[in-house]
Amino acid sequence: MKASILKLKKFFRLEAERKYDNRSVFGGLYKGLQSWVAEARAEGLGEDLILVIGARLRGYEGQTPVERQKTLLELWRRIEGETGGAQNGKTSPPQRQAAKPSPATSRPARPAVEAAGKTPVKVAATIGTEPKPGRQKAAPRPRAEGSPAALDAPTTVLYGVGTVNAKRLENLGVHTLGDMLYHFPRRYEDYSQLTAISSLLYGRPVTIAGTIRSISNRPVKGKRTITEIIVEDGSGALRVTWFNQPWMARNLHVDNEVVLAGQVEQFQGRLTLNNPEWDLLDKEQLHTNRIVPVYPLAAHLGQRWLRGLMKRVVTYWAPRVPDPLPPPLVSSAQVVPLAEALLHAHFPESMEKLRAARQRLAFEELLLMQLAVLTQKQLWQGKAARRFDAPEPWLAEQIARLPFALTGAQQTALADVLQDMDSGKPMNRLLEGDVGSGKTVVAALCMAAVAQHGAQAAMMAPTSILAEQHYATLSKLLVGKAGLQAGELRLIVGSTPEAEKEEIRRGLHQGSIKAVVGTHTLIEDPILFAELEMIVIDEQHRFGVGQRAALRGKGTNPHLLVMTATPIPRSLALTLYGDLDLSVIDEMPPGRRDVNTQLLLPRERQRAYQLIRNEVEGGHQAFIIYPFIESEEDGDGENGQRTAAVEEEKRLKKEVFPDLKLRLLHGRMPAEDKERAMAAFRDGKAQVLVSTTVIEVGVDIPNASVMLIEGANHFGLAQLHQLRGRVGRGADQSYCILIPDRDQAAENERLQALLETNDGFMLAEKDLQQRGPGQFIGRQQSGFLDFRLASLSDGRLIDKARRHAEELLAADPALSKPEHQPLAAVLKIYLSDGKGDPS
What confidence tens digit (pLDDT) does each residue in 234-251 have? Predict the structure, then answer.
């Protein structure tokens, strides 16, 4: 029996003799393990067993004597089973039969570790690693079924990680050994190619190998020191220095052969390396002579220390993590197995293996996400819904009554929606189209189809202004034409008088009102529907999952159509809205003129003011948009430039447009004041609206012909395009003027892209690449897209993940086959983490 096991046996016997008082070792049994672990590792004791012993004894101090006895007996059986300790009839260490505790002091026993020879059970409850409530950003990856329980062990079970360093690791989101496997480098330094000293070039990252010829420490100002060595490699000699690292003189010695990696610098005309990474040539080169991982750090954690720790954990545990993807999927998707991916994502042997590793891990993230949304889609499609047909003669008559012809894209979208509504399954469709593309008309015709069958439809908009606008549009299109009579279409918003609200509630409950347009009032009021069969949600990203579910709940599996005027890249639509069927209106009505977009320098601002004056004199209106509400928010302004709405509105009234009617609108105003300001502009009572981006997407002001955007460099492409879409809705030429807050910002890539095209989908793709998905999603979805390695701009990989997810669910909808069980277990955890209904 190994000496370390004999020592542990001695500890256990002493505990039994001392009636399990936790004093057999000075400071307690668990504290005594710290020196024992090093001895056990030196003897080659299995890492699994060491970690299980540490995990089981971690809570020993807080146990009762009865619990301590049970813990040591179970642990000793495990040790005997794994080391062959029960020999020559010898059995467990001496035991003392503890007195039965009184009911007042008895506590439930801790969970036992499985019998010897089997995978340890999860010991999170024992070692204090229970998952915290709520989803954390870049949350630890769900552990696949069959993963070693030791991966749930805290980092303190590692040699050299005490409570202090464990706390520092927790600041990085690293709590357990499993977390360490998924704490990926933020970048890599390629030091894989050795360079001769005679071939060094200034500014290049290099790795050199040579022999130390001299080493010295010398003080500089204050308490600072410089450690300097001269290293030779046969082609030349190089001076190498470390600043304020006097211990380097103890680590390195004359005649040591070393490998050094860093960027070539220059001092007094000579090339040098300053503070390079280093390894001894006869040791494993972890920090040099390879592709070196550079990890995110927390305060007081060193890169070398963390890299060494990661090497130990990844090398040992990566091969022991079971792959949740079945081998046929790994093969057909042409990705590497999980163990190989984890190894090479941390310590790659080549750039090719690094790329393959990161692609595999990103593919798995995207696959889980696609399985989640497609599973949600399966559940919804498994329900039954009332069928609504739109007979061809009736539909043709309604389309003929429209004051304009439908575009080809509108006709295609209409056909998609009507087909869904006649399928017998609840529709769950996203209707996406640029500003002014005609989404509301499609929704109106489908609401009319529901109403003509005697059922009810509801449209919910995020603000009263938008709700009123939709109500006006539907009134023109439906009342007296598409079968709706006066009074069968109603509007309900927060400002609706209570008596009228009560009348609407009664009409909806009795079924006399067939269609209703409203704000969140539709779900907040005690509104009951007689037969709600269709729901339309406008600018759906403004509503949370709970709000949409509340409106759905007022009917029985109603058809759902959600609309957005924000052009969304296809790759993002497949992720954020992957549970929805998608229809895109990517064609503008004929005759609509592009908005004339121009970029002016700050000193040319008077030209924009003159354009506004000319347009107002011609009977039009103008928006002036600022990125901030008040000037103290402006962190990037230069030379006192004022780009804030509150101060600028006062200046414009006094100095620039004293004879015009201006109104102010910003997000800190009370809701009623915002509504009044927007209504005054809509009704022509204000000629210029000075605002932040709070102006609503979809608000239709045909008379507005100028959009002046100050501090335009502060906005994303999607935001700029949405703002531009507030004008150009009438027959006359409209203008969008972009003014950055300093001359240099005029070269901003986003601003230049806006000048080149009016195509919202092309701009959306650019914005996704430049600024990520945050420009397209609301707060409700922000956690849904937390990926460690996957990128939402990688459309090809997203398509691959989508295709394989669809194939998996088509062949095994419940993932119940034995080969799919590990993936199903991981997906279950993924779904329970709040990712089931992103849209």
Answer: 898 999 999 988 888 888
As its CATH architecture, domain 193-289 has: Beta Barrel (2.40)
**H helical segments located in 347-463:** 351-381, 392-400, 408-421, 439-451
Q: What is the distance between the alpha carbons of residues 776 and 484, in angstroms, rounded to a whole number? A: 36
For Cα atoms 173, 179, 184, give the angle at the middle one, nearest 5 degrees: 85
Q: Taken in order 640, 646, 650, 652, is the CA torsion positive or negative?
A: positive
Two structure tokens written together for 178: 């499993």
- Residues across the chain: 839
* Backbone torsions φ then ψ of 122, nearest 5 degrees: -65, 130
Cα–Cα distance, 772 to 769 (Å, whole number): 6
Contact 5, 85 (CB under 8 A): yes
Dist. CA 566–CA 539, nearest whole Å: 8
Amino acid at 726: R
Q: Do domains 193-289 and 392-423+438-564 have the same CATH topology?
A: no
Cross-strand pairs, 837: none
Taking the C-alpha atoms of residue 117 and residue 79, their distance in angstroms, rounded to an integer, is 10
* 105 exposure class (CB count in 10 Å sphere: 0-12, 13-18, 19+): exposed
Confidence band, pLDDT 50/70/90 cuts, at residue 501: very high
**Is residue 672 classed exposed, middle or buried when 0-12, 13-18 and 19+ CB atoms within 10 A define those classes?**
exposed
Longest distance between any two alpha carbons in the chain, whole Å: 107
Distance CA 278, CA 529 (A): 73
Beta carbons within 8 Å of 302's beta carbon, 6+ residues apart: none
* Gyration radius from the chain CA atoms: 34
* Weakest mean pLDDT among 190-194, 281-285, 333-337: 281-285
392-423+438-564 domain in CATH 3.40.50.300?
yes
CA distances from 519 to 122, 536, 831 (A): 48, 12, 30
Of 74-78, 127-131, 152-156, 798-802, the one with minimum mean pLDDT is: 127-131
Q: Which residue has the tokens 């190998």?
A: 209
Q: Parse the chain into domains and list their residue ranges.
A: 1-116, 193-289, 392-423+438-564, 596-757
Q: How confident is the model at residue 484 (pLDDT cuts 50, 70, 90)?
A: confident
Distance CA 262, CA 265 (A): 9
What's the pLDDT at 100? Answer: 37
Element (H, E) at 216: strand 205-219
| Fold type of domain 596-757 | Rossmann fold (3.40.50)
Does residue 748 surpass a pLDDT of 60? yes
**Cα gap 49→47, rounded to integer Å:** 5
Average pLDDT score over the chain: 82
Burial of 232 (0-12, 13-18, 19+ CB in 10 A): middle
Instruction: Write the CA distances from 452 to 392, 504, 819, integer angstroms.
Output: 14, 19, 50
**CA 210/CA 237 separation, integer angstroms:** 9
Task: State pLDDT tens for residues 395-429.
Answer: 998 898 888 889 999 999 999 999 999 999 999 99
623 contacts 727 by C-beta, under 8 angstroms: yes
